[in-house]
Amino acid sequence: MVDLTAITGMATSIRAAIDITKAMKDVHDANVIQTKTFELTREIMAAQSYAMEAMQAQTALLATVRELGEKIAKLEAWNAEKDRYALREVGPGVLVYTTKQGMDNGQPFHMLCANCYDRGIKSIIQSTQELQAGKRMHMCPHCKNKIPLGAIARPAPSVASGTDFDLHTGR
After folding, report:
1. CA dihedral in degrees (34, 37, 38, 39; nearest 10)?
2. pLDDT tens for each residue of 19-43
3. Long-range pairs of 128-136 with CB within 8 A, sequence gap ≥ 24
4. 105: left (phi over 0), alpha (psi -120 to 50) or beta
5. Are 17 and 47 within 8 A, CB to CB?
6. Residue whose C-alpha is closest to residue 38's, from 20, 50, 23
7. Which of the listed residues 33, 62, 67, 135 has the most CB atoms within 10 Å of its CB?
8. CA 76 from chain center: how many Å?
9. Which of 102, 97, 96 lies closest to 82 in space, CA to CA?
10. CA distance 111 to 95
């Protein structure tokens, strides 16, 4: 926040400098002129100090505004991206996000980790070589969640009709 005491102090110092300058106009004594010059210099330096404080506060505010603008832009981009996905159950109790029909934007079928998605992270679940109870294990590269998947119903592509999609064979 702009430091109002810095602005008030600067205004007070400038006013004092003006008053000192007016007083110097009618003085003819060298000692009084020297004293008034010293006072004037002191008030000018104080005004400069207050001005610097106000500039530093303004610079900090501008940096905060820029950071907030960047955060807003990232949130808006994420909101636009997450609107493309819907939560799906791909196995008993296994929830992932997949693209809504017609929202794939030319991307191949993929699943997003529900854990990461809820934290604003787009993390594509990857297949591993590990098998458990006859099911291929998949893992989120970000949070390391492991998900056992067998055949899942793949959404129908816009060109062909939907069929079950086997993650083992890719068909």
Report:
1. 120
2. 777 776 766 767 777 787 788 888 8
3. 136/167, 136/168
4. left
5. yes
6. 20
7. 135
8. 10
9. 97
10. 10
The residue behind tokens 């079950």 is 164
**Helix extents (H) in the chain:** 4-25, 30-82, 114-117
Q: Say whether pLDDT at 154 is over 60.
A: no
Give CA–CA dist 105/23, Å, rounded.
Answer: 77
DSSP 87: E
- Which residue in this structure is represented by tokens 């493309």? 84
By percentage, how much of the chain surpasses pLDDT 90?
29
Residue linked to tokens 């980790």: 113
The amino acid that residue 100 corresponds to is K
The span from the CA of 43 to the CA of 32, in Å, is 16
d(CA 16, CA 4): 18
3-state class of 156 per DSSP? coil
Per-residue pLDDT tens for 109-131?
Answer: 899 999 999 998 999 999 888 88
Q: Could you tell me which of 147, 161, 149, 165 has the C-alpha nearest to residue 101?
A: 161
